[in-house]
Amino acid sequence: METPTKRIALVTGANKGIGFEIARQIGRTGVTVLVGARNKAAGEEAAATLVAEGIDARVAAIDVADYASIEAAAATITSGFGRLDILVNNAGINDPSDGPAPTARLDAVERVLRTNFLGALAVTQAMLPLLRKSKAPRIVNVSSGLGSLTQNADPAYPYAAAKFIGYSASKAALNMLTVQLAYLLRDTAIKVNSADPGYTATDLNGHRGTQTIPEGAAEAIRLALLTDDGPTGTYSDRKGIVPW
Ligand code: NAP
What we know:
Structural class: alpha/beta
CATH class: Alpha Beta
Oligomer: single chain
Mean pLDDT: 97
Number of strands: 8
Strand content: 5-15%
CATH topology: Rossmann fold
Number of helices: 7
Low-confidence stretches: none
CATH architecture: 3-Layer(aba) Sandwich
Number of domains: 1
Helix content: 40-55%
CATH superfamily: NAD(P)-binding Rossmann-like Domain
Distance between the termini: 41 Å
Bound molecules: NADP nicotinamide-adenine-dinucleotide phosphate
């Protein structure tokens, strides 16, 4: 086992998009980053890009929809480092057969919930013993404004017409994970927060998002690097607090 002096971060779904940028910018601060990827080759390519930029990056093979792969990754991190300082639950999907509640395909809703909510829950459960060994542990759940019940209930919300029951429910459930974990861990050093990237041009939306990837990654990075006086149990985007 290495005896790491540097902090260790795991970012799920970090082989591309917002997760890759989160890994890159956390890595630039001197943190060792574990590039979570379900596709090993894609993960190795992403980690090699970061290493070429001078970042201490390693691949962590994790398919968040495959609980055995999560357990295996936790075992590898345990034997390799003995602790984890930062967990960013970023991996997420949408599904072309998800959609408005009256017509969304149930199998699609199930797939989205399994990855975006159950995946994050499973990774968090598996990594919590490692996070408890850190002096300043941080958990960031990469949510979405589409997961806000308040915004969904507001007809004037700019994305009010974007009704994807599986995706929005998965992110609302992820926010519940943030709230409940923050409560349960309130007497520890662990801080748990939800980040809303905002509408960002990535593969997830055919690059129709209006923000750049660094803009989309900014809030999750801020929350991952919070100092000890930072908040826990919050939901925010790069402009400020988002209503639950
Ligand atoms: P993206 O470019 O499609 O990246 C998604 C990442 O998640 C990819 O690395 C993907 O891996 C990974 N992933 C998907 N399913 C996985 C699984 N079962 N196990 C492990 N990794 C998995 O999308 P993105 O826009 O960067 O999305 C990142 C996060 O931001 C997501 O949680 C998304 O919901 C959230 N978000 C995005 C926007 C936006 O406008 N882009 C807005 C709000 C929230 P593969 O390469 O193998 O598919």
